[in-house]
Design brief:
This protein folds into two domains: about 170 residues, Chloramphenicol Acetyltransferase; about 260 residues, Nonribosomal peptide synthetase, condensation domain (Chloramphenicol Acetyltransferase). The protein contains twelve helices and 16 strands. α2 crosses α5, α7 packs across α11 and α8 crosses α12. It starts with a strand and ends in a 7-residue tail after the last helix.
């Protein structure tokens, strides 16, 4: 699909050169498919329902403002994948904003097509890690599509840009606070409050990781054969999730967390499940707009013993809320806690699974992960597909994510191919979907015929 128009919006901000990747960024690169010359996966995001009365010049200025405000949207990397790989933050330049006309079609449908097109070409080492586009409906900005370099801008890059666009329509003085820059984070870490939080975080991480040693459902198997990924599409099941959230007065994220926890509790034969979540420090509101500089993997322990699905949702929510609040914004603290537990117990604390909470937050967001290994001959996609993502790098044992919540429910899993077959991944994902559907039916929901 060819763009109708495009603009090079200037930006300027502070620049930094040659700093090493954070632990979280290196982890993302290690788990990503080996795409092109940088090994960093590409994610696409689509947003709809932009504010009424928004002008195209406001969108252009908002995109430029977001790029100037958030260093992650200006971060580039050396092309070689090495242990000492360096990152560079551009101080000034231009970001390209493309425009596409819906032409009477649904703007979000067009945005999905545009997002896939934006992600089709590899990012070059000199390119900014974000490719934005605006979808026009009769000349009016109606939706936004993005492709981002994942380890640089992570899953919240779209939120940052969308927030800037919505902020353009707010009265002056009501703008939310920006995410902290690395320099501001360093100042906080050196303050008495920052040092006290680091002590609390270290104690919490050690306690959570110690429990993981006893409750892990890690499976023993032969040498790694790479990471196997699976995607299950449960047709029409999204309304069951929304019904459970309304019925039990919890968030949709907690519905997913409880369902995954209960299924994995049965798999491990345990009333508690140790998890590792992709999260950010929510204890400080200034950090709510997380970027890859701040994202970390925080351990938590979920009690899945309750027979009530609603109680399981609330227990999971409290556990993850505590993990997110107590977890420190410095990802290296998690590594230090892992080393400490390993030394004190003589065992390796490994979580039962990791859960990508980022994909669970705003229901208006359609998040898709694009890799070269996804089957390209399926339109519409099959109800289930699985494929090998990686063959050379150390894979994860077992991880889950939720990639879609529109009419259908899209559940995905990734696991060590030596430990889980495609059939086993499919059975696990189907069990999660069935757990949700069964709980919804018990709560009075009826699927449409």
């Amino acid at each position: 699909m060819e763009p109708l128009d495009g603009w090079d919006q200037p930006f300027s901000g502070c620049s930094t050169g040659g700093h090493r990747l954070t632990w979280a960024q290196r982890s993302l690169a290690d788990l990503s498919p080996d795409i092109g010359n940088d090994g960093l996966a590409v994610a696409t995001q689509v947003f709809g329902a932009l504010p009424e009365g928004l002008r195209i010049d406001q969108v252009r200025e908002a995109v430029g403002h977001a790029v100037a405000r958030h260093e992650s949207l200006r971060t580039r990397y050396e092309p070689e994948v090495t242990e000492t790989r360096q990152a560079f933050v551009a101080g000034e330049g231009r970001v390209r904003l493309s425009a596409f006309e819906a032409g009477g079609r649904d703007p979000e449908t067009v945005a999905n097509e545009v997002a896939a097109g934006l992600a089709a070409d590899l990012f070059t080492p000199e390119e900014l890690p974000v490719r934005p586009a605006v979808i026009l409906d009769g000349g009016r900005p109606s939706a936004v599509a993005l492709a981002v370099r994942h380890a640089s801008a992570d899953g919240l890059a779209g939120d940052l840009i969308l927030e800037a666009i919505r902020e353009a329509c707010r009265p002056s003085g009501n703008a939310p606070s920006a995410a902290w820059t690395p320099a501001e984070l360093a100042a906080f870490e050196a303050s008495p409050e920052g040092r006290a939080q680091a002590v609390r975080s270290g104690d919490y991480l050690t306690d959570a990781l110690t429990v993981m040693v006893d409750s892990s459902c890690t499976r023993r198997g032969p040498a790694s054969q790479g990471t196997r990924a699976g995607l299950l599409i449960a047709a029409g099941a999204a309304e069951a999730v929304r019904h459970l959230a309304r019925h039990h007065r919890v968030s949709e994220a907690m519905v997913f967390t409880a369902a995954h926890g209960r299924v994995l509790g049965r798999l491990a034969g345990s009333s508690v499940v140790a998890v590792q979540t992709a999260t950010a420090n929510r204890g400080r509101t200034q950090l709510r707009a997380s970027v890859a500089h701040l994202t970390q993997l925080v351990p938590a322990v979920l009690d899945v013993s309750s027979a009530s699905f609603g109680d399981a949702c609330r227990a999971s929510g409290l556990a993850l809320m505590k993990a997110a609040q107590v977890g420190h914004h410095d990802p290296d603290m998690l590594r230090a806690a892992v080393d400490r537990v390993r030394h004190e117990t003589g065992t390796d604390p490994k979580p039962a699974y990791s859960l990508n909470l980022r994909a669970l937050r705003p229901t208006e967001l359609r998040l898709h992960h694009v890799t070269r290994d996804r089957r390209e001959d399926a339109e519409p996609p099959p109800a289930y597909s699985d494929f090998l993502v990686e063959k050379d790098r150390p894979p994860m044992d077992l991880g889950f994510a939720v990639w879609g919540l529109n009419e259908n429910l899209e559940l995905s899993a990734a696991a060590d191919a030596a430990l889980f077959s495609g059939e086993e991944l499919r059975a696990l994902l189907q069990e999660v979907a069935d757990e949700i559907l069964h709980a919804a039916e018990e709560a009075g929901w009826k699927a449409e015929a």
